[in-house]
Write a structure and sequence with these properties.
The chain is mostly helical. The protein is built from nine helices and no strands. It has a domain of 84 residues: UraD-like, CATH 1.10.3330. The two termini are 17 Å apart.
Length: 162
């Protein structure tokens, strides 16, 4: 596969961060890249080896869950689909307000949006996880947010490769 084709296929795996797919291709993909798990590990290693500022930029590229961007239709297709499968597009006004309050408090505390691989969760479960993770310290939450980003990427790669 040519680099342009590879990047076009996998640039959305890490939200608004085509650099991960570009670097994966440039590093040489090897035999491990022919499975979703293998490609996921390759791309995660690139992110994990990147400078802290670049990882923070990656976290900040993610949208708020059930946020105003979703209401305005500004989510990537991947995020829109993932949030809809968890019912985040069907929040009651009270639930929506709760998400807005949590989003604002979380971003103020940690400097990036709350990130959760929402696959397998419904919106009330997501609210519970959201409230729980507010108690983390910044280092814990940075690590957890990156783990969630990697899980999202793995799920997206699996979808693309099936």
């Amino acid at each position: 596969m040519a680099k342009a084709d590879f990047v076009a296929a996998f640039e959305g795996v890490y939200e608004h961060s085509a650099w991960v797919a570009e670097q994966a291709f440039d590093n040489g993909l090897g035999a491990g890249a022919d499975t979703a798990d293998g490609l996921s590990r390759i791309m995660a290693a690139i992110v994990d080896a990147s400078p802290t500022a670049e990882r923070l930029k990656l976290l900040r590229a993610h949208p708020d869950l059930a946020g105003k961007l979703a209401l305005a239709g500004g989510l990537t297709e991947e995020s829109k689909s993932e949030q809809a499968k968890s019912g985040l597009d069907q929040c009651s006004p009270e639930e929506f307000e709760k998400f807005q309050t949590l989003n604002a408090a979380y971003t103020a505390k940690f400097g990036f949006p709350f990130i959760l691989a929402v696959s397998g969760y419904q919106r009330l479960e997501i609210l519970s996880v959201f409230e729980s993770r507010q108690r983390n310290n910044p280092e814990q939450e940075f690590t957890e947010a990156l783990a969630q980003v990697h899980r999202i990427a793995m799920l997206r790669i699996a979808d693309l490769m099936t």
